[in-house]
Specification:
homodimer; four-stranded parallel beta sheet; 45% helix
């Protein structure tokens, strides 16, 4: 719809970003070309740089630029605790709370039989080896509270229990700052059962 | 917050896109690194390519890759009509209607005295020269229906009237497909005045 193939190409490329449809992509492309060509170049370089240097930590699989991430390398972390999350973004969220001093294991996604994603695809074998290394005393299952995340936590929990390891799950309950009236009933029911 | 400077740099660069805050930017960056590195490279190249090849048409200022855009070069367009819009995105919207066969003039923005943007900054001198070239019979003011767009249309309209040129403004009225109950009162008032 524009008079420029490279502008069309830019709009198509921007649509690959999550949550960006054709209208947002056009708006972004027009904005960059009209008002922020320097920003476009910065973004182009940042993408190239990230693709070239961001890889996965060999121990926990989170994003890092070295062989091991700074969390795995930090001797002050409590190696007896292992927190299992679905993605590097989830790991980053747990880390930002400042409430956790153990180590992490980032799954390569979640179990999803409908999409053909089984235990092998998300690296469970490696997790079981890691959890059985003799140092880990507690595995904290912090997968998402979605159907697939719950199923993943269940499968991991059962497998680790069979190996005689202690597993815990993040507490379910009422989010901080929320009013009961607006919290969904399943959450309130869980908060009642897990009351302390 | 992540263990990678280049990932942080990518998040910062993505925040320069309009409508993208720190949460969306993180989500985009994690998505690209985790699931779509090819998309990241495609986007990087598309940005580089667009910055290098997209320029402004010498006649109407819209985006193009040659000296003149395909609309200005098209001999079938009606050169007696000149549609004035604020941005290439607006020009693209008018063009997509298929209801206009004349030529365009894309302003370099809109008059905005508070931001120090005056007639010179948006290329009004060039517009007045173009409108007075003897070929143009009607100037259609299609700036936005915001305070600044209306002021811009008013200033251009007065200046062209003083030069003896006919100007028209896009009709104000009820949007197609809308229910009166939900249309704002100013729009209904205008639709009443301009009824036909």
């Amino acid at each position: 719809m524009t008079d420029s193939n490279s502008l069309e190409g830019l709009i198509q490329a921007l649509r690959r970003l999550p949550g960006v449809g054709v209208k947002s992509a056009s708006r972004m492309a027009f904005h960059l070309m009209q008002h922020d060509r320097e920003g476009a170049q910065t973004l182009s370089r940042a993408l190239q740089h990230a693709v070239g240097s961001v890889k996965h930590c060999e121990r926990c699989h989170t994003f890092t630029e070295g062989d091991l991430c700074s969390t795995c390398l930090d001797p002050r972390r409590d190696a007896s605790k292992l927190c299992v999350v679905e993605t590097p973004a989830d790991q980053s969220a747990v880390e930002r709370t400042g409430a956790y001093k153990g180590l992490y294991f980032v799954l390569m996604g979640k179990l999803s039989p409908l999409d053909g994603i089984g235990p092998h695809d998300i690296g469970l074998k490696k997790l079981f080896d890691r959890a059985s290394d003799g140092t880990v005393r507690e595995v904290i299952l912090a997968t998402n509270f979605t159907a697939e995340g719950e199923a993943t936590a269940h499968v991991i929990g059962e497998a680790l229990k069979a190996r005689g390891l202690q597993t815990t799950r993040l507490a379910r309950g009422v989010p901080v700052g929320s009013e009961l009236e607006y919290v969904d009933l399943g959450t309130i029911a869980h908060a009642l059962v897990d009351r302390r």
